[in-house]
């Protein structure tokens, strides 16, 4: 019997400090352990959990086969960076394509040993696609397979095959594949790789024809799950950072928190309703048919949906573990950064209050582009910079709070960096809060993708909103409502009345109306919400010039740097003897938790009107109804809402409002919202969704990602990010930024920037290039307003100053 080999017997390297055998073994083992932790439902494809794990393992041990060439070994062991860069640009030093062909060969051998090979016939091609792009972004499958037509490409493979260290590779794979009933002979592969390439090409058209005919999401989800497992395992081994702890979170965590905080009392109507909703939703967990995986919580704004949905998810998580052996993460996703920080703080307070020992990065994680780059484990191991970013981007936590952009641009993506966390969504409980903000043109697309996650990857979804869009239609039983008495709760809330005036008026006409009202109602807090920054600035300056006594003025928009914006929101929330007059753009609708007496809102879509109504008498603390006034404002060209919202949605809103009385009460809002979304669903075009779905179903990854945009730039002009050196802290941060930019090593630059990123972004605004007269600092790709010029370009109260004299120049 031959002696068992160890990494000491091998000399090929995968990385400068790592032996290839060790790396392949680690990636294969991490891939199989990740796969085995998942409970998938892929029987339709002839794939049980054991086969899926073995496929994942084989992809893992084959992905760097091409590093066994003399070319790659010369490249990886080269110590001169300049020489190494020049070698990297030569195709014979690349390892992706030859590794992909080898992966196809090994998967074909493995699947040939199974009884029902036919149902798995396209898996080797999927393995080829995954390995070919494990260091880049996915391309369209047809293009990737067609690359083997190119004779120049095959001649590069000829050179690589001749330079393979065959003896050592044979020894490596004999050991790695010992338990897989596969006896790979690298010599046979070297003789047959051209015929294997021809076979891949031959099957290409049949594979593409099959995908086009079937038109379902299953192969997309399988491909990206396997890809995600591979690149995550690969990056973990390359970085030597692996955090994998299973931390128990009590399903009664929120129950205990509510008792601790005294939220159980029903001293007023709103608390009574919040507790009734909480009880109804959380007690439903035990009676649920958990074969249904798509749920909704449709409740009025301000009725405690954050705590309710978290508690429901924790209880569902416990039940899934007990009954289905599913270890579910909770992914809480929201559309706006302001409410992400707000909801994260709520979750943090829950854990801190009830179970402070579990307050760590591997329990609760916040992921968005402005979040702190810091990760601490329960064992008090701390990570910063690139290591911390690596853990955050891998969603290494039990509860993840993140943006819609992060979530939806992961499930609909071709990007390596985004897709690394794709596999974590399998078996998770995903809470989608404020789902009404998802563009209606993507409803069908997301319906199909989410249905696929639920059916094949056993992912659970909870749609949470006061205004439930018809992504899933309850009339067809596509979504299970957890709040059976929602009509009752909307009736019990009687906080506001809405008055709608659809006759367009100019800003000057509007000023006359609001001047008389703010002067007469001196004890009332006012909120004015506009569709454009410039209209909001015009009215704010007008109201400020009235110099009303006993009044504090606040302005909110993206025209102000985030640091000042957050300070303004904090001041608005503080109790004051003076009444508050707040002027804002629609950013106030993004879950900003404020409470006023009277709202004026420039015309918008129904969901936006509903959101702004939630800022009026929010906590039912007044003895009278709050007043929400909807008006239509215009300039010389057109109505302001035409600059922001789609004509289709605006027209549907007008249809609904014209069918309603001119005064609307809160109990009417549920009908109003349902009527609106029904009109949108019944009359909107699904062409864009259908086209994107065809890209998904035919594995056209690159085309898909270039066409999918969850957030569209509606302004129609080129913008520039500008750093505003607004205070002494900003001066120091800018110095650090310039120092970072001067570093030659890109990894050093990235590490340095991550250390200042959060504070740096607190001073960034985005403005139109046509409104920004300063020259951009050379090679920085960012605008800059220096401290000594700040008074000319930035007002701390209202933000960027648009009206500038032509003689003013930046230093």
TrEMBL record:
Transmembrane segments: none annotated. The keyword Nucleotide-binding applies. Gene3D superfamilies: 1.10.3210.30, P-loop containing nucleotide triphosphate hydrolases. InterPro entries: Cas3-like_dom (IPR054712), CRISPR-assoc_Cas3_HD (IPR006483), CRISPR-assoc_Cas3_HD_sf (IPR038257), Helicase/UvrB_N (IPR006935), Helicase_ATP-bd (IPR014001), Helicase_C-like (IPR001650), Helicase_Cas3_CRISPR-ass_core (IPR006474), P-loop_NTPase (IPR027417). GO terms for molecular function: ATP binding; catalytic activity, acting on DNA; DNA binding; helicase activity; hydrolase activity; metal ion binding; nuclease activity. GO terms for biological process: defense response to virus. Keywords: Antiviral defense, ATP-binding, Helicase, Hydrolase, Metal-binding, Nuclease, Nucleotide-binding. CDD domains: Cas3''_I, DEXHc_cas3. Residues 506-670 form the Helicase C-terminal domain. Residues 13-236 form the HD Cas3-type domain. In the central section; belongs to the CRISPR-associated helicase Cas3 family. In the N-terminal section; belongs to the CRISPR-associated nuclease Cas3-HD family. This is CRISPR-associated helicase Cas3.
């Amino acid at each position: 019997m031959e002696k068992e080999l160890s990494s000491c017997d091998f000399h090929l390297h995968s990385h400068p400090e790592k032996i290839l055998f060790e790396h392949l073994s680690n990636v294969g083992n991490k891939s199989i352990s990740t796969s085995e932790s998942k409970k998938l439902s892929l029987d339709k494809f002839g794939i049980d959990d054991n086969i899926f794990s073995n496929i994942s393992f084989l992809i893992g041990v084959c992905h760097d086969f091409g590093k066994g060439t003399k070319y790659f070994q010369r490249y990886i062991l080269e110590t001169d960076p300049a020489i190494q860069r020049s070698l990297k640009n030569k195709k014979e030093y690349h390892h992706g394509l030859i590794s992909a062909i080898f992966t196809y060969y090994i998967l074909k051998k493995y699947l040939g040993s199974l009884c029902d090979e036919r149902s798995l016939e396209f898996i080797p091609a999927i393995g080829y696609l995954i390995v070919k792009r494990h260091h880049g972004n996915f391309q369209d499958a047809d293009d990737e397979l067609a690359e083997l037509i190119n004779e120049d490409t095959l001649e590069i493979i000829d050179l690589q095959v001749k330079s393979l260290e065959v003896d050592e590779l044979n020894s490596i794979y004999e050991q790695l594949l010992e338990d897989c009933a596969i006896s790979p002979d690298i010599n046979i592969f070297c003789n047959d790789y051209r015929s294997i390439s021809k076979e891949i090409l031959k099957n290409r058209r049949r594979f593409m024809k099959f995908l086009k005919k079937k038109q379902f999401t299953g192969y997309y989800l399988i491909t990206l799950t396997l890809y995600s497992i591979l690149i995550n395992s690969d990056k973990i081994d390359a970085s030597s950072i692996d955090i994998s702890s299973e931390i128990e979170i009590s399903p009664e965590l929120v129950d205990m928190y509510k008792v601790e905080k005294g939220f159980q009392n029903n001293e007023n109507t709103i608390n009574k309703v919040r507790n009734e909703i909480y009880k109804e939703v959380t007690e439903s967990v035990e009676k649920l048919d958990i074969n249904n995986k798509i749920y909704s919580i449709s409740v009025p704004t301000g009725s405690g949906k954050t705590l309710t949905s978290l508690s429901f998810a924790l209880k569902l998580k416990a039940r899934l573990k007990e009954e289905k052996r599913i270890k579910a993460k909770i992914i809480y996703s929201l559309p706006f950064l302001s409410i992400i920080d707000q909801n994260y703080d709520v979750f943090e307070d829950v854990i801190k209050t009830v179970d402070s020992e579990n307050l760590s990065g591997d329990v609760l994680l916040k992921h968005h582009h402005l979040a702190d780059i810091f990760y601490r484990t329960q064992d008090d191991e701390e990570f910063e910079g690139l290591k911390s970013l690596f853990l955050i981007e891998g969603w290494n936590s039990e509860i993840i709070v993140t943006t819609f952009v992060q979530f939806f641009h992961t499930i609909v993506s071709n990007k390596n960096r985004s897709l690394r966390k794709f596999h974590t969504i399998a078996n998770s409980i995903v809470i989608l809060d404020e789902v009404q903000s998802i563009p209606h043109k993507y409803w069908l697309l997301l319906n199909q993708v989410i249905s696929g996650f639920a059916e094949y990857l056993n992912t659970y979804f909870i749609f949470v909103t006061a205004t439930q869009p018809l992504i899933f239609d309850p009339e067809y039983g596509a979504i299970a409502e957890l709040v059976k008495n929602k009509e009752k709760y909307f009736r019990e809330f009687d906080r506001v009345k809405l008055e709608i005036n659809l006759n367009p008026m100019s800003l000057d006409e509007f000023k006359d109306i609001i001047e008389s009202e703010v002067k007469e109602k001196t004890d009332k807090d006012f909120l004015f919400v506009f569709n454009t920054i410039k209209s909001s600035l015009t009215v704010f300056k007008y109201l400020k010039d009235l110099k009303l006594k006993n009044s504090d003025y606040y302005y909110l928009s993206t025209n102000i740097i985030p640091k000042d914006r957050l300070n303004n929101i904090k001041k608005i929330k503080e109790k004051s003897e003076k009444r508050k007059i707040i002027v804002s753009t629609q950013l106030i609708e993004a879950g900003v938790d404020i409470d006023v007496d009277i709202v004026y809102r420039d015309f918008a879509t129904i969901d936006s009107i509903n959101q702004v109504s939630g800022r009026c008498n929010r906590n039912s603390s007044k003895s009278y109804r709050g007043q929400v006034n909807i008006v239509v404002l215009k300039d010389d060209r057109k109505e302001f809402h035409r600059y922001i919202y789609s004509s289709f949605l605006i027209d549907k809103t007008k249809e609904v409002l014209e069918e309603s009385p001119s005064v609307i009460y809160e109990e009417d809002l549920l009908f109003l919202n349902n009527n609106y979304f029904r009109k949108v669903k019944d009359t909107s075009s699904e062409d864009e969704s259908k086209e994107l779905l065809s890209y998904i179903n035919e594995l056209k990854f690159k085309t898909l990602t270039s066409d999918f945009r969850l957030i569209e730039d509606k302004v129609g002009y080129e913008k520039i990010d500008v750093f505003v050196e607004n205070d002494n802290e900003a001066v120091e941060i800018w110095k650090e930024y310039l120092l970072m930019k001067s570093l030659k090593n890109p990894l050093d630059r990235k590490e340095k920037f991550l250390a200042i990123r959060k504070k740096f972004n607190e001073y960034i605004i985005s403005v139109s290039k046509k409104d920004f007269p300063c020259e951009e600092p050379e090679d920085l790709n960012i605008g800059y307003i220096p401290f000594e010029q700040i008074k000319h370009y930035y007002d701390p109260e209202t933000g960027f100053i648009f009206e500038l004299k032509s003689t003013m120049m930046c230093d």
